[in-house]
Amino acid sequence: MSVLEQIGRPLGTHPSANPDVFFIEGSSEQGAGLACFASKPLENGQVVLRAQDPVASTVVAKFRKEVCAWCFHYTFGDILKFKLETPRRRGAAWFCSTSCRDNWRKLIGDVGWTAIAAFEDGLARSSKSGVSNTEDETCSLQDIETAWDNALKSGEKILATRRTKPRWVPPTATLTHDVDLDEARFSLSAFISFHNHPHTYDQVKRLVPTLKLYTDSRATLQGHIDIYLYMLSVLPLDSPIMRYVTPLHMVTVFTRDSGNSWGIWGLELAEELFAYCMYPTASYFNHSCAPNLSKERIGREYVFKAAREIPEKAELNVSYLGGAEKTLGFRERQERLLIKAIEEEMARTQKNKVGDGFRPARRGCE
Ligand SMILES: [Zn+2]
Ligand SMILES: [Zn+2]
């Protein structure tokens, strides 16, 4: 069976993370989509869901030393005081406190840490980074299928080489763009969750997939294939994480990331994207311009509360736009990073001309 045939959602019911308070069902208003409904009348202020740990998350490359990898606290430009270093003394994650560092390390576990250290140390061989702004193009489902088939064959060759020549050093500079690094770290964090908590793979698989990220952008497809081949090249061969480094797991994560992940936004005016996270238990709340749930982030936890009295069986909605937190599609993230790169390039070349232009339009409400 091809990768694309396997990425669909499992059939059957979608378990609610808090069934006493809400259930998940198909919604006539959402087309074929799913929605959350109150299991009983809810009081104003009642907690509907605590989404505690993201299944996958990453602080974007530009802010890794300024935004805590555990609680997403921002230092306003100071370098975070606490970090974890790889065996080659590369910083792998930065934190605002020792407790954030210790919590993160405990959640990742030894298997996860070994994989992350190998991932980061592999990057040490290539120091280039930036954002690609070459022309992109669309591609067909057949293109996607063929590209991943070829990637699988290349991957098998890499593994065969590593098994027969333990001292083989993988080709350098396979991950040269910040966008790819963010996506790579994000997918690795998902694979570590799958290993540590196998039910999280089922949670991710139940989310609505989209292939638009690939049909719209061959560069994105190629970026993900590069990530796959990079991980096969550098993660320890005996790591249990390796069983998730497959085209199927890659495509499963990325087709859910797009459209399901939350952006963690810092400075509202500057529109800076600090991090993005996938909270599958919270992904079934649909958007409304007049939401009946409030959403608040406390560290890495999202708390959803009834914003007014809600009758039994009413659909539960959140605003995707409210406050400083928004969801952001894959391409929007890429475009955002590209815009930042253009701004920085302009700042370098035309010092006084940066200001009003190049501000991305806010996503409107229909
Ligand atoms: Zn922290
Ligand atoms: Zn709206």
Kindly describe this structure.
The protein is globular and about 65 Å long. The chain is built from nine helices and 13 strands. The protein folds into two domains: 17-51 and 264-349, SET domain (Beta-clip-like); 70-262, no CATH class. It has helices at residues 3-6, 98-123, 141-164, 178-196, 199-205, 212-215, 218-234, 247-260, 330-349; strands spanning 22-26, 34-38, 47-51, 56-59, 82-85, 91-95, 262-265, 273-278, 286-287, 293-298, 301-306, 315-318, 326-327. By secondary structure, the protein is α+β, with helices and mostly antiparallel strands. The strands form four sheets. It has a four-stranded mixed sheet with strand order 1-2-12-9, with no helix packed on it. Mean pLDDT is 83; it is low at 348-366. The site of one zinc ion has 8 residues, from loops.
Itemize the secondary structure elements and their pairings.
Layout (H helix, E strand, L loop, with lengths): L2 H4 L15 E5 L7 E5 L8 E5 L4 E4 L22 E4 L5 E5 L2 H26 L17 H24 L13 H19 L2 H7 L6 H4 L2 H17 L12 H14 L1 E4 L7 E6 L7 E2 L5 E6 L2 E6 L8 E4 L7 E2 L2 H20 L17
Parallel strand pairs: 9-12
Antiparallel strand pairs: 1-2, 2-12, 3-11, 4-8, 5-6, 7-8, 7-13, 10-11
The protein binds zinc ion (2 copies).
